[in-house]
Amino acid sequence: MKRKRKLSILKKTLLLFNILAVVALLTIYAGTRISPQIFWPVALPGLFYPFILIINLGFFLLWAIRRKWYFLLSFIAIVAGFNHITALISFSNTSQELPDEGTNIHILSYNVKVFDLYNYGPRWQLSFTNRNNIFRFLEENDFDIICFQEFVHDKAGAFKTLDTLPTFLRAHHAHSGITVSSRNVNFFGMATFSAFPIVNKGRIEFPTRMSNLCIYTDLLIGKDTVRVYNVHFESIGLSAEDFLFVENMTNVEQIADRDYLRKGSMRIIGRLVNAYKQRAVQVKLVADHIEQCPYPVILAGDFNDTPHSYAYRIMTRKLNDAFKAGRGIGPTYIGDLPGFRIDYILYSNEFSAYNFKTGSQQYSDHYPISVWLNLGTER
Predict the structure, then answer these.
(1) Are residues 165 and 33 in the same domain?
(2) pTM given for the model
(3) For the residues 283-306, what does the mean pLDDT come to?
(4) Quick one: 111 and 63 in the same domain?
């Protein structure tokens, strides 16, 4: 009797945790549809989607093996959000031959972290190592369109970028969008380089105190005009204190300090909530602008958000994710809290995508991402 009672308690406990895991998964789905400006708590679980998915898969297998109908709980929840799985992992062939018809366009999106400008050497000497590594990578791959985020131009010429890249890139037509400058020498922002002629330029300003921006560039590709959006949505803006707090979570004494734990957690949650709300405004501005665009659209950039977010869903309502033409999970952020896919290349239905790749170059705190888009053939 005691053994049966213990088994019954264990089964009920597992079932309770299973229900909580399903609720967590459904909350993630809801978080992609409810603006963080309206109800921000549903945005946070999206950060943990891979772990919550694995937990639900575990419960599905547990109950299926034990031939209990409870397996339907997680099974239905997983199937209901199948599009989240395809945004997390892709199984496409990354060695497809490009079509002979139409125009094949090789596109790169890269947050270059100001080309590692502030990685000073002895006596505050500029270090050109990672900048030169990025230059070499660009030269070797010969992209048609390059979208840079966290770009920097040195007006004084000590740390050359904007004036140097066109000298060796085939994509030598440049459109830069500056958001802030330092001492009227270093200018920071976005830049789009193109092998195709630029026929129009513009920018979408964001209501933010951060240096985030969207620029758009109209390119003449054959007889077609294509609009390229280059975006950098609101970042969390974690401070050195915040990163130290996260590192200290492995320290037993620090975890035991409830006041330290409460203050640190609330500070980070506050930053997350602010970023989610700001991005909700920014993605709507860009999505509305795209809605009015009369041309085929390519959008590339750093979303600072995962594929299981409100920002991602809004941006992919009209556009396709090039990641699905790749293979694997493809995290793009390699900074202090690595493992997230937050960089994207999206495209409208006039294009078809081939051979999406996430690079392995560690010259920034982001990996570069690239894809071949074909304009002019049937999807």
Answers:
(1) no
(2) 0.92
(3) 97
(4) no
